[in-house]
Write a structure and sequence with these properties.
about 525 residues; alpha/beta; Alkaline Phosphatase, subunit A; 4-stranded antiparallel beta sheet; 20 strands; binds 2-acetamido-2-deoxy-6-O-sulfo-beta-D-galactopyranose; binds calcium ion
Length: about 525
């Protein structure tokens, strides 16, 4: 009897094993793939589904036609590094000093051990990749990137399984790709040196060899020259590893397609971090002249092509019904951001920030209210939503989608607005949002209740950059406290702070309490 029981137990155990394994596979497979496509410096009015008429973006428009197009979709900051920091950590960047635009030799800004959108999805069984612009630093604190050695910590130490990166922005040195922990194609016999001081001896720069440049600079951007373009910062060596600006978009698509193909059998998370339409705007030759708006417009066409390629890849691999795609931007638009690329001269009647005031660097709506589209064939009902959603909410919302609770103290400014992102009827987005400039010394607070859509702007410096996107970049004087009624005045033209001082004060108190306690407490 004992032997029979023992044999039965063993048999049961043997049969149970593969069943359990199959079960967990089935569970993780039922999780959708997630792709976040983040454009760079793309304004609310820069794509045709948000009203642009001087340029057509058929692939982005197709996302909107098949998904939810948000009219109050935001990034959390009006520059790149703080928005990306918040997207990845779910925390407002103003809480962490050192999250402003990262220089070429910046060390990793997000420390290993931080709960991130990638670490949360990894726990749920996702394979994650970031492909494209990183701009969140690489390497150890006080040391920065070891360009000729191991580049860590970086994305792989905070939850991503693999990465293929442009380390900072392409107007900053160096022009090399980083694959996982190393500069790709680096020849050890020609080491890469990166610094902020001009090297001794003959070193052509945008100042000394200005006449040789294929795109002239307008402010800054006059240091080391590569590919006929002078940059911010200096570098030498690493010649075999250097890329051509014209090839970036193709490379992001190629590496993303590789990642999707390799992971199609299991849930994956791809952060497609486009460099378009940041300066220097150098599209591939096949996109040159494809818009009426010179380089800036041609880069929008190139960005739209990338979106089309990602979607075509999903279709080819039969993944559209199992993939949530989110399209967003890292900050609002700017025309002349340091190179003479005729963005202003050739803009025609185009309004890059759409109906809004301000752009990149400002906390007026144009700085952070940007295109924001979610699509998932068969799950998301197409439509337009005016719910308030922000890139900072993706950490919490996507963790919820993957069934991952947030650990205590993680993602303190990130809301679970998954239902709103999925366009569910009557689902609510946020009721308030803090908008910040690069360093967080200028803050905006949008608050929505049943009766009002208030916006408070606090500018201790009494200055705002890029207030009118259609004019050369400059600082304009503004009052320290401004209050707008966004429902009646979306363009933030009528300051009501003196008319409704008690409301301004109430919003100021709310802002102070968010600053000290976190958004969800
Ligand atoms: C600014 C640069 C600008 C751009 C920006 C970062 C100058 C004069 N301006 O300091 O060209 O690189 O930083 O842009 O150097 S972001 O989109 O990555 O935040
Ligand atoms: Ca940007």
């Amino acid at each position: 009897m004992k032997t029979i029981l023992c044999v039965l137990c063993c048999l049961a155990f043997l049969f149970a094993l593969p069943l359990e394994a199959d079960d967990s596979l089935a569970n993780s497979r039922s999780l959708p793939n997630i792709i976040v496509i983040m454009a760079d410096d793309l304004g609310y009015g820069d794509v045709s589904c948000y009203g642009a008429t001087e340029i057509q973006t058929p692939n982005i428009d197709r996302l909107a036609a098949g998904g939810v197009r948000f009219t109050s979709g935001y990034c959390s900051s009006s520059t790149c590094t703080p928005t990306r920091y918040s997207f990845i950590t779910g925390n407002y960047a103003f809480r962490k000093p050192g999250t402003g635009v990262a220089p070429p030799n910046a060390p990793a800004i997000i420390q290993p051990g931080t709960v991130t959108i990638a670490s949360l999805l990894k726990q749920a069984g996702y394979r994650s990749a970031v492909v494209g612009k990183w701009h969140l630093g690489l390497g150890e604190k006080d040391k920065g990137p070891d360009w000729n050695g191991e580049l860590k910590p970086g994305p792989l130490e905070i939850g991503f399984d693999t990465c293929f990166l442009l380390p900072t922005t392409n107007d900053r040195v160096p022009q090399v790709y980083v694959r996982d922990h190393r500069v790709a194609n680096l020849d050890p016999a020609d080491p890469l040196w990166v610094g902020d001081k001009q090297p001794a001896g003959e070193h052509p720069t945008g100042l000394t060899h200005r006449e040789s440049l294929k795109m002239d600079w307008s402010h800054g951007h006059n240091q080391t020259i590569h590919n006929g373009i002078s940059r911010i910062g200096f570098y030498m060596g690493g010649h075999a590893a250097r890329f051509r600006d014209e090839d970036l978009a193709d490379k992001w698509v190629e590496k993303s397609v590789e990642f999707i193909a390799a992971n199609r059998e299991q849930p994956f998370f791809l952060f497609f971090a486009s460099h378009d339409i940041h300066v220097p705007r150098i599209p591939h030759e096949r996109f040159a002249g494809k818009s009426t708006m010179s380089y800036r417009g041609d880069c929008i066409v190139q960005l739209d092509w990338c979106v089309g390629e990602i979607m075509a890849t999903l279709e080819r691999m039969n993944l559209t019904e199992n993939t949530l795609v989110i399209f967003c931007s890292d900050n609002g638009p700017v025309m002349d951001d340091g190179y003479q690329d005729f963005a202003l001269e050739r803009r025609g009647s185009h309004r890059a920030a759409g109906p809004f005031t301000g752009g990149k660097y400002s906390v007026y709506e144009g700085g952070t209210r940007t295109p924001f589209i979610t699509t998932w064939k068969g799950t998301i009902e197409p439509g337009v939503s005016d719910e308030i959603v922000c890139t900072i909410d993706l950490a919490h919302s996507l963790a919820a989608l993957a069934g991952q609770p947030l650990p205590d103290g993680a993602c303190i400014d990130s809301f679970n607005i998954l239902d709103a992102l999925l366009g569910k009827p009557r689902a609510k987005g946020r009721d308030h949002l803090v908008q910040q400039n690069n360093t967080g010394n200028l803050l905006g607070l949008r608050v929505r209740d049943n009766d009002h859509d208030w916006k408070l702007i606090v500018s201790p410096t009494k200055q705002a950059y890029n207030l009118i996107v259609e004019e050369p970049l400059r600082a304009s004087p503004v009052p320290e406290i401004q209050l707008f009624d966004l429902a009646a005045d979306p363009a933030e033209q009528h300051n009501l702070a003196e008319q409704f001082p008690e409301i301004a004060e109430q919003l100021q108190k709310k802002l102070d309490s968010i600053k000290s306690a976190g958004s969800r407490f």
